[in-house]
Amino acid sequence: MDQVTEFNRLQFLIMVDGPLEAAELLDRIRTRLPDAVPYRRDSVDVRGNLLEINPNEGADPRLAATDEDDYLHFRWRVELTPTDRTVDEDHQVALARELLQAIEGPQVRATVCAAFEDRV
């Protein structure tokens, strides 16, 4: 596998649903991962990745509550793109687990979407 393909395979999403605004979601992440460095509005550099929070254009509260693929209709997309060439799959799996713990809580659901999601 070439380096670009491997690097793209390490990108991942965390779909998040709940009453949080983007700033509140980012605060949760920054509280749990204090090494996250602000980058732009609704984004941070964290552990060799650019983390960006974006609204999910396919968000639909009704489908998020009833659809089999409910995560496709969650409110937020937390997108992680590796920026450090030394990041590997084990690193990304550990980061995804830690982010899930930081994000999930009362009234907040989160799901990892990744090539390696079965390891999270």
Could you give a quick summary of the protein structure above?
With 120 residues, this protein is α+β, with helices and mostly antiparallel strands.
Q: What proportion of the residues form beta strands (DSSP E)?
A: 25-35%
Q: Structural class of the helices, strands and pairings?
A: alpha+beta
Mean pLDDT over the residues: 92
Run of helices and strands: HEHEEEHEHE
Largest beta sheet: strand ordering: 2-3-4-5-1-6
Compute the CA-based radius of gyration: 14 Å
3D shape: globular
Helical content, roughly? 25-40%
Q: N- to C-terminal separation?
A: 22 Å
Low-pLDDT regions: none
Extended strand count: 6
For the largest beta-sheet, the strand count, sense and barrel status come to: 6 strands, antiparallel
Number of helices: 4
What features would you describe in this structure?
The protein has helices spanning 3-9, 22-32, 61-66, 89-103, and strands at 12-17, 37-40, 43-46, 49-55, 76-82, 109-114. With 120 residues, the protein is an alpha+beta fold. A 6-stranded antiparallel beta sheet has the order 2-3-4-5-1-6, with helices on both faces. Helix 2 (22-32) packs across helix 4. The model has no long low-confidence stretch (mean pLDDT 92).
